[in-house]
Every structure is written in C-alpha cells, then in structure tokens.
Amino acid sequence: MAFRKDFLWGGATAANQFEGGFDEGGKGLSVPDVMTGGTKTCPRHITDGIFEEYHYPSHEAVDFFHRYKEDIALYGEMGFKCFRMSINWTRLFPRGDEKEPNREGVEFYRKVFEECRKYGIEPLVTISHYELPYYLAKEYGGWSNRRLIDFFLNYCGTLFREYRGLVRYWLTFNEINILLMGAYGNIMGGGILPPGRDTAVGVLAGLDESWDDEQRWYTALHHQLVASAKAVKLAHETDKENRVGCMVLSRIAYPYTCRPDDVLKAQQTMELANYYCGDVHVRGEYPAFAGRLWREKGIEIPFGPGDKEALKEGRVDFFSFSYYSSSTATDDPNVPVAAGNMMRGPANPYLEQSQWGWTIDPKGLRYLLNEFYGRWRIPLMVVENGLGAEDKVETDGSIHDQYRIEYMKEHIRQMAEAVEDGVDLMGYTVWGCTDLVSAGTGEMAKRYGLVYVDKDNEGKGSLERSRKDSFYWYKKVIESNGEECFR
Ligand code: BGP
User: Fold this and answer.
1) How far is the CA of 307 from the centre of ligand 1 (A)?
2) Does ligand 1 have an atom closer than 6 angstroms to the CB of 470?
3) 187-226 pLDDT tens trace
C-alpha cells in the first residue's frame, strides 16, 4: 500500500465552528462571535456587537466545549491517529493584548489534549483559524496593524510552553492566503472589519468592497507571514520536537481553453493563490513574480527591520492545505463565471458539482500534490477535504451518506496515486469530522461529518451525536491504512 506506516489519518475542526461556550470560562469575544447564521441562499451578516434579533451560530456551535470527551471517544473508536483542532485565542487572551493568559482557558485545552493522548491521538493544533479577538479587530484594525505580531507571539509562546510534550504538530494561520481573496477573507482571516452596524457577508453576499483597499490586505498578509515565521522559530527554540506547518487554501485554475492567453491566466491565478504565500513559508522569501505584481498594483510591502531575515529563519517543517474543488480561468471577459462556485471561475463542463455548487475533482488533488511537492520537496499534508451535503436521518436513526463515502474514497485513491508518483504525504484529516457550522454560509445544513449532530440552522436540536455510514467506513480505511478504498 502507498501510505506510510505512520500516516496521520484523522479529522479536522475549528473552534469557532465547533466549540461553543463563547462566553464561558473567561473567554472574550472573537470576530466570528459577531457573525450571524445564514443559509445556502441567504448571506450571513457581520454586526458591530451582538444584537438580540440575530442567531449567532458560533455561540453554542455544536458544544465541543462541554462534550469533548464524547467527541474524542468517537474519534478513538474510528481509530484516528490525529485530530486537527484550533485554539480559540480569546479563551486564553480575552482581549488579545494581555500579557498573562486566562488560566481557565489554558486548562481547558490541556484537558482536551490529555483526552486525545488517552486514545493515542496526536493533536494537530491550528493556532489561528478565523478566531481573531474582536477587541484587536476593533481597536487595532486587525492584522493591518503591525503590533499584532507581538500579541500573536505572546500567545504562541504561551501555547508552546504550556503544551510542551502534549502537542507536537502546529499550524500557524488557517488558509493564510484567504487575505488575497477579497473582503470576506479579510474579515475572517485578517479582522479587517467593514464599517457600519450590520453588513451582509459571505460567499453569497457579493460584498461592496469599496470601503477597503488592497494595500491594507497585502499589509495585513505581510504581518501574518512575518508572525508565522517568528512563531516557527519560537516553536523550534522551545522544543526541538515541535513540527510546524503552514496552511494554505489550495487553488486549481485549469485553463478554460488551450488558448495561450487562458493558459497564462491560469498560471497567474495559481501562482498568486498557492505560491505567493507558499514560497514565503517554505523558501523564506517572496516569489519572483511578486515584484511585478506589487508594481502593477501599486502595493508597498511594509518590510520592517529584520523581516527578511525572520522569513528565512522561520521556514516551515511541512506544507499543509485545504482542498475541496477546482476551478478554471480565462482571459476572455465574456465567458460567464459560474454561480455558487467558491473559487469563482467559469464552470468546468467535465466535472460535477456538490449541492452547494462546488466542483468535485479528485484528480485535481493528485495534480496539486505533485505540483506542490515538485516545487518545495518538503512533506505535505491534506488537512481539509470533504463533502458538504444535506443528510437524511432515517426513522431508525441511521444516516446513509454513500455520497460522502464516494467523495472521500475517490480523493484518497488519488492521494495514493500521488504517493506512487513520489510525493511525501504525511497525513489526511477530513474536514468537519463531526458536523459543525459552515464558515462560508454560517449554517448547519451543510454537513461534512462522519458523526451527525442533531442541530438545525435556527440553532434548535438536542446536540446528540450519532454515527453515519461514513463513520464505519472511515474506521475501516484507517484500520487498513487506506486499502479499504481499493476494495
Ligand atoms: C475552509 C475553512 C474551514 C471550513 C471549510 C469548508 O475554507 O478553513 O473553516 O469551513 O472551508 O467551508 P464551508 O464551511 O464554507 O463549507
């Protein structure tokens, strides 16, 4: 079989979508705590504070905060080797700029990690997954302010010291390149807030971006890249066993036609999406194409003293990414952009789409794994992949999610192909292993889980967990180190 013996099979979550307990244990407000629920057809909103008339899905989410033992036991039952989760920055630093952490928050995550260890599960911790303290967003302008680098490093230092020996695998920023993908990405990833009391946001909203400018986004991203590199160095200094990765939202843009203009457009789209951040993380410097990009856009990168050295000294140990779907690119402005396609490109006539309009492209994963490994030659990890779909609970309580099994099986097969191609792949964590709140739309109906959670878009439900068919299937995949996908 293709996969390494120590392959990290598991699942992935993020605190703001999973944890709940938003005002318990001394936790402060995070940016997602002021984001309302939406649906497939109705955008979510970001509000300036919390208003009674709205439902805010992060507040309870699916209550991992109180149910972590049960959830981790289910992961143990599936045989997880690895559990990717994030730490809610405001559970440790309620405002974000304090010197000392909130001990209750520190102890909560310690218990979670100890619980993982009971089942032999290796935690993979995302330090920042769209959970910026709201205070830092409001008072400091989010990551557009350089001072956030120090606040972040203080937070990281606390994590590396407190969880030494309990956590070995870390990711700095979730989908760091989302800051290059428009206003929603900058709200979620950068804490750069729109003005006003109430703004529709999300993939559906088509947010009016006139309130902001790209300069601010590139500045914020530079600050995060420097912060990430410094965190890598700090992690290594604190414990030489630490392994730190980056996390990029991977993007494929196939040329819409073989016209050289489309091919170039596709190349440029992929360079900006994957390699702008990827090269800084892995090679410790911005790629060659960045110079012209900055010139043509009139962007000034605010290099501080020592930034270039910091980027070189903080190169990551492995490269991780999310992969759900692919898109196309064309230079022809007359080709209509497919609605509902997250990556925003003309629809690919050769591929099917999910219920949410995301193209399904397992072979794209093999293609990307080869692209990334060919460029960087460091271990890769797929830390998000999965199918968001509506599930039906049968009268006997069973959930037959064969569509999800097919999706995962095809992607895992293509990972095996990539390993045969020579790629060093260290693990796979399926997104939303327990049903959780969607980041794009703020709803529950878009389910990724192998474990079902009884909760609906309005926030109603018992929160009870039950095993879907995919739960039993994934257990066999892990037991057989992937062989099950070829049976
Ligand atoms: C990624 C995020 C996750 C997750 C996933 C699925 O971009 O890192 O937080 O939510 O996408 O997206 P959605 O929840 O919108 O279906």
Assistant:
1) 30
2) no
3) 999 999 988 888 888 766 666 666 678 999 999 999 999 9
Protein residue closest via CA to atom 10 of ligand 1 = 439
Q: What is the DSSP string of 365-426?
A: HHHHHHHHHHHH-S-EEEEE----B-----TTS----HHHHHHHHHHHHHHHHHHHTT--EE
Q: Is the CB of 86 under 6 A from ligand 1?
A: no
Q: Tell me the whole-structure pTM to 2 decimals.
A: 0.97
Q: Beta 451-453 vs 380-384: how paired, if at all?
A: unpaired
Phi, psi (degrees; rounded to nearest 5) at 45: -120, 155
Nearest CA to ligand 1 atom 3: 439
Domains, in order of start, for the chain: 8-486 (3.20.20.80)
CA-nearest residue, atom 2 of ligand 1: 439
Ligand 1 nearest atom to the CA of residue 178, by list position: 7
Q: Which tens digit of pLDDT belongs to each residue from 350-404? A: 999 999 989 999 999 999 999 999 999 999 999 999 999 999 999 999 999 999 9
Which three-class secondary structure state does DSSP give residue 169? strand
